């Protein structure tokens, strides 16, 4: 069985809207917290705060967020997977 | 066409008899018969410790064919380890998974102090299961041990994982999110956090004859048709304005809007509680628990969408402990819950699961329903279970009252729920 600790390396291949990243992150963090952590990271990386991010910018934002401890980091890892695989966020129910 | 079974025989009577045993409608072939595959069959049963062997035997008889997956959900009053051994012996070759509960039910009966069991047969669905321990210390390592990912199956392209975990390890939400990243984005996830009849001391999960606390079990199902997941809670926002968590550590919220969390909570629920004859200011700290369940926190997760976070207790400093983490900066509303809404939510979860089957009939279901909903509904909880059963056309189901519900549909980024009903429906 392949190691699950080392999943296949994939990268985001298309531009990603900031709103999509926030919507995915909101599933675990709530809208406002997701908005805050994503916006802070965008500012730190001097990326645009809204609109479309280039694929490598989106990868950088989510990789940086994924290093955060606790729920934020985990939510970012899940989001990165969803975005890489171009899955639209479903509304949490 | 299925490559597995391909039997030819010549009698229509045999066709009917086989159909009754669960074989899919056969192709008529000039009076002959081409038998393709066994369809999914599901059975469930409820029993007491004293008649466990008889209960498993009845389940096997009802199922009528070799089980591939068996679930056992048991009160702590029953010897869970013994049940898992009996089930593993009786259903040799099947993946047997289970956990202790805070209540257990089938589609017709709910109660405490018993166990329920559920079995699946047929070759529409294959199962690959495992167990990991040491959840608290290293959730990723536990998941690595538990996840046994089957090779890609072109005939069974749909993947759904069932996750059972010990919530007393304190990282149920983290484990659910990690499971999603490790299973991959094309695997749906459903499951529940084990219970221990509200003792909050020892909740265990089991796989085969292995039983352990601080552990999790993952069963990955590969199916010809998609399984259906339905999720719904019955809470509505009560507070007029959003409230911000301003000081928190893990699952303990110390301050909301810069004030002690309990003070804010009392202020927000005072009028609604008073209408129910409850004076929250005069209620002793130790007695606040049941009132917390009526007025839970709703994490704003979308337009008019809330994820429920269950407050469990408060301390003398006014901090409130929740069932899972709420980070600083999270914005919540206090929600309220009425019995009819809770019952309707259970029905809607089942309807959503059935709808997700895409028109296929329901063969059966597993249900993960929060113990908080039982505490809210009291004796009417069984009505909610019957609503679920009715919405699933009376198909066999089994479930338990959880300390947390897990549901992750494709594309969803939120997996661990409180005070919510999760229904996993299986197509026939």
What does this protein look like?
The complex is a heterodimer of chains A (93) and B (428). By secondary structure, chain A is mainly alpha-helical. Chain A has helices spanning 18-29, 31-44, 55-66, 70-84; strands at 16-17, 52-53. Chain A has one domain. Mean pLDDT of chain A is 83; it is low at 1-9. Chain B folds into three domains: 1-37, no CATH class; 42-233 and 341-427, no CATH class; 236-338, no CATH class. Chain B contains ten helices and 30 strands. Chain B has helices spanning 12-20, 52-63, 80-90, 139-146, 172-183, 261-275, 289-294, 339-355, 371-377, 381-391, and strands at 7-9, 27-29, 32-35, 41-47, 67-74, 95-100, 104-106, 110-111, 115-121, 125-133, 158-165, 187-193, 204-207, 210-213, 215-223, 228-233, 235-237, 243-249, 252-256, 259-260, 297-302, 305-309, 311-314, 320-322, 331-337, 362-370, 397-402, 405-408, 416-417, 420-427. In chain B, strand 11, helix 5 and strand 12 form a beta-alpha-beta unit. Chain B is globular and about 60 Å long. The A-B interface holds A 1-5, 7, 23-33, 36-37, 70-72, 74-75, 77-79, 81-82, 84-85, 87-93 and B 140, 143-144, 147-149, 173-174, 177-178, 180-182, 184-186, 231-233, 242, 244, 299-303, 305, 307, 325, 327, 329-332, 352, 409-415.
């Amino acid at each position: 069985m392949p190691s699950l600790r080392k999943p296949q390396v994939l990268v985001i291949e298309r531009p990603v809207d900031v709103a999509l990243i926030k919507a995915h992150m909101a599933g675990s963090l709530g809208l406002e917290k997701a908005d805050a952590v994503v916006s802070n990271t965008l500012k730190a990386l001097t990326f645009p705060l809204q609109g479309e991010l280039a694929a490598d910018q989106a990868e950088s934002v989510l990789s940086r967020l994924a290093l955060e401890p606790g729920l934020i980091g985990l939510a970012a890892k899940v989001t990165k997977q969803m975005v890489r695989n171009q899955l639209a966020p479903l509304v949490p129910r | 066409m299925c490559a597995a079974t391909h039997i030819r025989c010549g009698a229509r009577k045999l066709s009917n008899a086989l159909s009754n045993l669960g074989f899919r409608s056969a192709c008529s072939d000039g009076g002959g018969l081409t038998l393709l595959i066994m369809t999914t069959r599901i059975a469930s049963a409820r029993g007491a410790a004293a008649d466990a062997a008889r209960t498993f035997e009845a389940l096997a008889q009802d199922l009528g064919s070799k089980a591939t997956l068996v679930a056992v959900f048991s009160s702590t009053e029953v010897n869970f380890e013994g049940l898992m051994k009996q089930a593993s012996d009786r259903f040799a070759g099947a993946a047997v998974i289970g956990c202790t509960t805070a209540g257990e039910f089938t589609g017709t009966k709910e109660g405490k102090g018993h166990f329920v069991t559920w079995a699946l047969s047929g070759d529409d669905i294959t199962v690959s299961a495992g167990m990991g321990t040491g959840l608290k210390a290293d959730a990723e390592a536990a998941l690595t041990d538990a996840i046994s990912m089957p090779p890609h199956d072109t005939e069974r392209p749909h993947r759904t994982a069932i996750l059972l975990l010990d919530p007393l390890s304190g990282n149920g939400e983290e484990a659910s999110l990690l499971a999603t990243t490790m299973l991959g984005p094309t695997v749906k996830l459903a499951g529940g956090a084990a219970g221990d009849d509200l003792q909050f001391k020892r909740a265990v999960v089991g796989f085969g004859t292995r039983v352990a606390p601080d552990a999790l079990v993952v069963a990955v199902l590969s199916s010809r048709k998609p399984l259906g997941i339905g999720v719904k809670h019955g809470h509505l926002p009560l507070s007029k304005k959003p409230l911000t968590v301003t000081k928190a550590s893990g699952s303990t919220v110390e301050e909301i809007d810069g004030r002690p969390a309990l003070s804010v909570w009392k202020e927000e629920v005072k009028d609604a509680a008073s209408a129910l004859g409850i004076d929250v200011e005069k209620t002793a700290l130790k007695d606040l628990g049941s009132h917390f369940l009526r007025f839970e926190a709703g994490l704003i997760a979308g337009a008019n969408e809330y994820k429920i976070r269950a407050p469990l207790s408060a301390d003398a400093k006014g901090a409130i402990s929740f069932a899972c983490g709420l980070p600083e900066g999270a914005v919540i509303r206090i929600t309220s819950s009425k019995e009819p809404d809770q019952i309707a939510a259970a029905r809607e979860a089942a309807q959503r699961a059935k709808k997700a089957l895409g028109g296929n009939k329901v063969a059966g279901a597993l249900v993960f329903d929060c113990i908080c909903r039982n505490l809210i509904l009291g004796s009417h909880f069984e009505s909610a279970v019957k609503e679920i059963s009715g919405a699933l056309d009376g198909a066999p189901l089994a479930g338990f009252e959880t300390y947390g519900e897990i549901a992750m549909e494709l594309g969803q980024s939120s997996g661990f729920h409180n005070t919510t009903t999760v229904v996993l429906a299986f197509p026939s």
